[in-house]
């Protein structure tokens, strides 16, 4: 690589918004575009996805087991699941870095508090920002 060339980094787009605001619909549309993005699902409680996720939190964290083990309700289990998953986020970054895709899209749960006050939201967004230097947020609140 020429010293003047900068390494190519993907643009990371976090679909963030209230439940039912269209985050998953946006990710689904983007995943069907000609230049397919690298897709990360961060919603541990979703039952089915209308798109293929390269990385899916549900492969690592079992949301229902988190509810049982920690005696939590649905929202607490989502926050705790993301807190557990954020400890593995350096591995997620490694996979995104190796991807040839120009865009990485992250679908998030509708519990917006995960990214507004939870430590996992800070870890995820700050790790993406510090690694890729380009972080775009979209808020789909309707």
UniProtKB/TrEMBL annotation:
Question: What are the alphabetically sorted keywords of the record?
Answer: Cytoplasm, GTP-binding, Hydrolase, Nucleotide-binding
In terms of SUPFAM superfamilies, this protein maps to: P-loop containing nucleoside triphosphate hydrolases (SSF52540)
Return one GO MF term: hydrolase activity
Q: Where in the cell is it found?
A: Cytoplasm; Nucleus
Query: Is Glycoprotein found in the keyword set?
Result: no
Which E.C. number(s) belong to this protein? 3.6.5.-
Question: What would be one Pfam family of this protein?
Answer: ATP_bind_1
| Gene3D superfamilies, alphabetized | P-loop containing nucleotide triphosphate hydrolases
Keyword match NADP:
no
* Domain of life of the native organism: Eukaryota
Q: Which family does it belong to?
A: Belongs to the GPN-loop GTPase family.
Role summary = Small GTPase required for proper nuclear import of RNA polymerase II (RNAPII). May act at an RNAP assembly step prior to nuclear import.
| Name the UniProt record assigns to this protein | GPN-loop GTPase
Q: Which organism is it from?
A: Cryptolaemus montrouzieri
């Amino acid at each position: 690589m020429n010293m003047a060339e900068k390494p190519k980094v993907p643009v990371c787009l976090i679909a963030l918004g209230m439940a039912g605001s269209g985050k998953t619909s946006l990710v689904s549309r983007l995943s069907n575009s000609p230049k397919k993005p690298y897709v990360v699902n961060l919603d541990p409680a979703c039952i089915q996805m209308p798109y293929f996720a390269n990385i899916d939190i549900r492969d690592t964290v079992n949301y229902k087991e988190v509810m049982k083990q920690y005696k939590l309700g649905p929202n607490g289990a989502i926050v705790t699941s993301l807190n557990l998953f954020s400890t593995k986020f350096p591995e997620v970054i490694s996979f995104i870095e190796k991807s040839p895709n120009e865009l990485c899209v992250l679908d998030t749960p509708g519990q917006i508090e995960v990214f507004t006050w939870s430590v996992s939201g800070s870890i995820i967004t700050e790790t993406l920002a510090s690694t890729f230097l380009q972080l775009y947020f979209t808020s789909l609140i309707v």
